[in-house]
Design goal:
single chain, mainly alpha
Length: 235
């Protein structure tokens, strides 16, 4: 059946992606590549376009951010809704990214990434209707996206803090990096929305939506276990 074939293909792709992530080694999700890290650590003064590029690259390759965004927009079809939720997420991670670095607020990168993995699990569970049983205690989805955005921002901040950024041009470079993150988010989100737009028109969408979110939830749990294991090995 077409729906079964599509779902099996999705499972295979997800399995390959997760296997690749686990094969990377003991490293948290927000590591900046060695060459880029050397540039950032050694840079002095404003470097607007290089930091924009680094921010965009970092977001496009940030699989935990993209998985969460996929969960957020899974059932959103109206552009206004998508813009609203993504804007809340962007506000959240922009605030903590910039404030976290400037205020020198340190957090364990592995634990932050573990919480980010839980955000993927949370959104998948919500999409599956598992939180509907909470009734009036069901968290407001928009507030949850904003809060998780704040946590995702701390994840980005920990990456930059590890590089001991030069204070010369720091604010401009942080803003540039954040702009790049937003550009990367738009690129990644555009691809995700395009795929979902096509998928929703396929008869298999309704029949595989629940199990697809179960797979998304499983990916979140795998990332959680990965980060907690990496935390223990690093200690």
């Amino acid at each position: 059946m077409p729906g079964t074939h599509l779902f099996n293909t999705t499972l295979r792709v997800l399995a390959v992606l997760l296997a690749t992530m686990l094969a990377v080694g003991v490293a948290h999700a927000h590591n900046i590549a060695d060459g880029d890290a050397a540039f950032v650590a050694g840079n002095a003064g404003a470097a607007i376009f290089p930091f924009i590029y680094l921010g965009a690259k970092h977001m496009v390759t940030g699989y935990d951010h993209l998985l969460f965004l996929a969960g957020v927009v899974f059932f959103l079809s109206r552009p206004g809704q998508i813009v609203q939720y993504v804007t809340l997420f962007a506000i959240g991670h922009s605030v903590t990214l910039i404030f976290g670095v400037l205020a020198d607020i340190h957090a364990n990168a592995y634990l932050i990434d573990a919480v980010i993995a839980l955000s993927v699990v949370y959104k998948a569970l919500e999409n599956m209707g598992a939180l509907d049983r909470l009734g009036r205690w069901h968290p407001d989805t928009r507030l949850a996206v904003l809060i998780f955005g704040l946590l995702h921002g701390f994840g980005l901040a920990t990456s930059l803090q590890e590089l001991e950024l030069n204070p010369d041009g720091l604010i401009i470079n942080l803003i540039s990096f954040n702009i790049g993150v937003e550009i990367g988010q738009i690129i990644g989100l555009s691809l995700i929305v395009a795929v979902f737009s096509v998928w929703r028109k396929h008869p298999s969408f309704e029949s595989t939506a629940y199990i697809s979110n179960a797979v998304l939830m499983s990916a979140g749990f795998m990332l959680l276990i990965y980060q907690l294991t990496a935390w223990q090995l690093a200690g």
